Amino acid sequence: MMHRPASRSPLSASSEKFDLDGHGQSALSSSILSKEYPKSLVSKTEGALVPTNPLHAVHEFCEEHADLLELKCRDLLEVEGSKSIEEALQNVSETGKTVVKGLQALGQAHPFIGVAVGAFVLVITLDLTRRENDRKVIAVKMKMQELMVVFFELRHIQSPASRGQDGKSISERLLPLMQEIAGDIKGCGSACDAYLKKGFLMRTVKSGKYEQRLAEFGTVFDEHRKAVELALSLHVAIGIDSANEKLDVQQDTLATIERKLDMLALFRKLDTPREKDMQRFIESHGGAKACISSDEALEELIVRSGELSVARIAGKDNGRKSNDLPGIRKRLFKELQEDIDETFNRNMVLFERKLEMQNKQLTDALHEESSHIISTLLSGAHDRIIDPDLQKIWKDMGWKGSVKARHFVLALHDYYTDQLNRQQPPSASTQRFSLAPLKSPPPSRPTSARSPNPALRPRTDDRWALAYINAAYVQPILEAVDDDGTGFVSVKEVNTFVESRPEGWSLPNWIAFWAVGWQASISKYKNQIYGVVQTMFQVLEHVLPSNRRAIDEYLFHASFWRIELLLRSTRSIGWKVMADPDLARITEVYSGKEEERIEVNLKDVGYELDTPATVALVTGEGRIERYVFPLLYLLLKRHLRVMKLACQHVLDAEELASLNESLVSVLLTVDERIQNLEAVFKQTHLDVQGRFGNFAFGLFQLSCGDIRRIPSQNTLGTWVDEDENATMGKEELTLEAIQSSLKYISRDILKFGIQDEFNAVDYYEFEPHRLRGGVNPLQGNVVGPLLSPRRGGNDHIPYYASTFNFGGSTVRSRGGYDFQFAITDDDGGLCRTCSGHLSISTDTITASWSDRRKKGSPDEIDYASFTLRRTPPFLHRYRYAPHAYAEDPVRARWSFACNAVLHEVQAKMWSRRFFEEKFNDRKRFVKLSTRDMVVRMGLSPQQPLTMAERQELDFLRRDLDPSEARFYHALAAFEIQKLPWHPAWGCDWCERRITKCRILCLHCMSEDLSDNIDLCGVCMDRMPTKRGFSHDVSHPMIKVEQTLHDFHFARVVEGAKAALERAKGIFRNVEAVSAGDDMSDFVLMSPRSSRTSGGSGAVGDPSDPRELLACACCRKTVTTPCWACVSCARDTFVCHDCDHKRLPALPNGPSPKHSLSHPLVRIRDSSIVGQNATTEENLAALQQRLLNLEHKVADGLSAIDNKVEERLSRLEAKIEHRFSTFEANAEMRFDTLEALLKQVVAQTAALPSIYGEVVREHVQSYMRR
């Protein structure tokens, strides 16, 4: 029996959408297929079939498109050449649209197919908006299309209700199958959607399973196609359709079974060169798991995949090597372990929402189209314009298909001015206002469903709008009408513009809004987005340490500086323009209604914009520039609520990553629009960049061409709202204010829920005493060594696996049970079989693994047999080793029994010693595991485990109870999660990912702050030379404990430079005072004005100048080198020792408000460097650098000497050990040889004398030789 895709299981949760109504037609298809068309219409209207006789039109359709309907997926196997395959696949989408038109007409004659046709229409139309597709997905869609083409055989059956001799009609035969087909189409669409959302690298490492599941859908569609063909053949053969001509049944339809298409073979043919290269690389390196485990192979895998950047919208690469290999490895391992069915089931929820939105939009479009279809068919060229005013203008001006935008706007102004003058009586000609409205009849077709509340409609007097319909506003009016940006307005664009007008609005109101009101709207959203982002960075200071890394990575994502480019390049409107109350009113009305509509759509998809196609569904028809700011504002406002929850609850790390994906989808839509506009502008303008500056008020100007991150120009942290009323009353956001706002934020907005608790695994649920019903002898807990002793130890235990299910067979045998089960490995779908035996007498299990690789390497440790025992897990640590049992079995057993009993007695008595041991085990396990994970993840700073510590950790991992070890491992991972990560590129010396403190060189930094030398705390005194920078230890450096975002970057750098100059000035002045100057007349001055409000420049009391250099943590006088705080209002110093020990500031010290998270600048000496320095000071600085270099060279040489001596001593010890071992072995061998010779002599003496003489002669002859 063919296995059906498991992703069909969730269909029952949403089957209401496909439930049949009383007429045997689905609610989904009724809105798409059940339209009543006028009888006078021909069979085709604007490319869609709208027949008076649907079956007659379907016959014509099949005759006209016979070649398309005969296209089969198997034909791709016969196509040769990559170019030919690409051309064949490109025709699939056009064929799909053609098939949809025919099926819509067929549904008029046979409504019972509506449930399947409706699902097919939604899946196909939703897929048409996707920018790029996968060859394998297109092949599966071709199989789906082959199934739907069979439906056209229904054109030979006139009535779906006529019954045959068996009492069944064709609708009754096929109706249950239609529902099943609709479910499978929907499941396939969701599976393809989930597959395409995975990155290329993610799909490649798990390609075997994904391709197998997609191939199953192809097989299911083949089965459905055969079932439909069989039902049609039986219906005709029985003679049910006696009123019609019988279908010409092919004689071999039932006799010949069609050759099954091997989808997997087709997938191999459809592999792109990049996919083939990736597969060869993975296979040559031992499979996906081996590639992911190796740093070199994983790096090469990333390069070959082409996914060099985490974000697809990050613009130009700066050439820095990514240090996110541990994060990528974690995600890839998670992808390998994730069940595909669970992935498809999760995606089904979002996919259903997208289908509902697509269904609604198609229904609205069909209703609008049907009401206007007659007038469109019967009209002339100018009569195709649906607005009477524009129709009259078009006719009077004699325009044809299109007109220049400037001429169009001027004609509009002249027309409405002339109409206004005609309405005014002569006595009122000099009046400025009139109560009579301009006549602008509504269009002949219904407008968009987005209609505002009647109470908020603009007033009926349109006179005010004429001021905005003139040549001064040609550009924004043109952009509102001219969707393609060519500079010409066509009839279609005019109709689209009029159709989008809200109900109750006159055309002058609508034009006035786009002339000025839209700029006011985007200016408002621009300010709101700035405000939300600034609030996010205030909330960042209060998030839980366990969430800080995820929030930092979210805010550091490339999508934020891309959003900043959009905000910075958009020109805000002058607020004096909005003094017109009528303009302000219509702007507020329309903006509010559009925001409400987008927000409803976002709620429908759960605020998850997984692809640009979903963005198009949420925004609806129209240019993305119309919706990008309100859409970003609503998304960021939602993300701000999630960040506030992060102040109180632990969130899943993937929660914030999914939020970034929504922003990326919006920006990818923006990029697509920019590319389309750029192609048009290059044909009509020489200065494309300047053209973008005029288009949409400069919205895309900074986002076109080669873009890159420039922190020095980032305005997210420096923006100030020009509206004084908006800035008044704003206070710093406190933790108490955040917690009070959490009462109004539901946890349901989280996709992955809160992670405040540890999800423990019940390892004892399968014990026989806890199971009901029959108990299998194999059930229960068994323990054993994780690795075979032949390996000599456990080198690497990265994770503790969770529970999983598998099935097998057991057979009663002599002395126990033989069993066998198979599981499919995540690495390339490798099937592994475990065979073993349960001994009843010893209650032990002996088993071994095997797979197809065993033949090539049968001696591998993976195929060695292993033994599992019923010893309770918490007592396994006391069990004797095999060698101990071999030496003294009685002693080994008694030792195990005594220790096990003592453990259980102490546990039941709650012994203090028992809990102390538990506490020490947990403390050591967490500490050692954390240090080990830091090394394995490539983080810095590192403290590798010694050999003794490694053995201790291996012992704890091996002998602790699994439930305890799993919990301790989770604690260690939680410690890693709480580390202050720096989502940059890593240390430029050791190339490890930086945690804790990050060192930035102020000297080795580009002017736009886009690149600099980064060092970790361990490599602070190193001198790397990279990317054109030559770092030196004498350079001034900044140390930051938290992620330095572009939001604060420029401010911190400028503050560090100022603090460095002030600190050096203080040091020089204190040195001058200490040198013997008259302190009574000396006023200690800083070379820069003080931060105090007095501004006199005095930085301290001259009576005790050394107090100025007191450490904020120990009050001792600091000396260079030391650190100065960049953030504190007072000049604050921290000595080297206090900084190394990370001591907090003293409450009664010189700077009690200083925090460990404040950035510090290093003060190496008090010399002046730069243009303000004198010759003597420059010479002193040079002398100081030479001394530093001399000390560094001496330290380096001494370090080399120590290293050489250490290596020589180790080599000497190794040689001595080898010699001693050799001597011992040689002595043992000589002793063995001597004993052997004595034995030979003794045996020879026992022989007769004749044999003795022969032996002696033989020995003597041998000795002589």
In short:
It comes from Coprinellus micaceus (Glistening ink-cap mushroom). Residues 421-433 have a biased composition (Polar residues). The chain is α+β, with helices and mostly antiparallel strands.
Describe this structure in words.
The structure is a single chain. By secondary structure, the protein is of the alpha+beta class. Among the domains are: 217 residues, no CATH class; 78 residues, no CATH class; 68 residues, no CATH class; 208 residues, no CATH class; 120 residues, no CATH class; 40 residues, no CATH class; 141 residues, no CATH class. Helices cover 51% and strands 6% of the residues. It is built from 39 helices and 19 strands. The strands form six sheets. It has a six-stranded antiparallel beta sheet. Helix 33 crosses helix 34 and helix 33 crosses helix 35. The N terminus is likely disordered.
Spatial extent as radius of gyration = 40 Å
Spatial order of strands in the largest sheet = 13-12-16-19-17-18
The biggest beta sheet is recorded as: 6 strands, antiparallel
Name the overall outline.
globular
Number of helices: 39
Q: How many E-type strands? A: 19
Helix content: 40-55%
Query: What fraction of the residues are assigned to beta strands by DSSP?
Result: 5-15%
Give short descriptive properties of this protein.
1265 residues; 5-stranded antiparallel beta sheet; 39 helices; 51% helix; EF-hand domain-containing protein; alpha+beta; 6-stranded antiparallel beta sheet; disordered N terminus; EF_Hand_1_Ca_BS
Please render the helix and strand layout as text:
Layout: H1 27-33, E1 44-45, E2 48-49, H2 54-64, H3 66-69, H4 75-78, H5 82-109, H6 114-128, H7 135-149, H8 170-197, H9 200-205, H10 207-238, H11 263-270, H12 273-284, H13 288-293, H14 295-305, H15 325-337, H16 340-378, H17 388-397, E3 402-404, H18 405-423, H19 474-481, E4 488-490, H20 491-499, H21 507-540, H22 545-556, H23 558-569, H24 581-604, H25 612-619, H26 628-645, H27 653-684, H28 688-694, H29 724-727, H30 735-741, E5 808-813, E6 816-824, E7 831-839, E8 844-850, E9 866-869, H31 882-887, H32 889-909, H33 912-936, E10 939-940, H34 947-959, H35 962-978, E11 993-994, E12 998-1005, E13 1012-1016, E14 1025-1026, E15 1029-1030, E16 1037-1040, H36 1046-1074, E17 1122-1125, E18 1133-1134, H37 1136-1141, E19 1160-1163, H38 1175-1245, H39 1249-1264
Parallel strand pairs: 10-11
Antiparallel strand pairs: 1-2, 3-4, 5-6, 6-7, 7-8, 8-9, 12-13, 12-16, 14-15, 16-19, 17-18, 17-19
Helix pairs in contact: 1-6, 2-5, 5-6, 5-7, 6-8, 6-16, 7-10, 8-10, 8-16, 18-19, 19-21, 21-24, 21-26, 22-27, 22-35, 25-27, 26-27, 33-34, 33-35
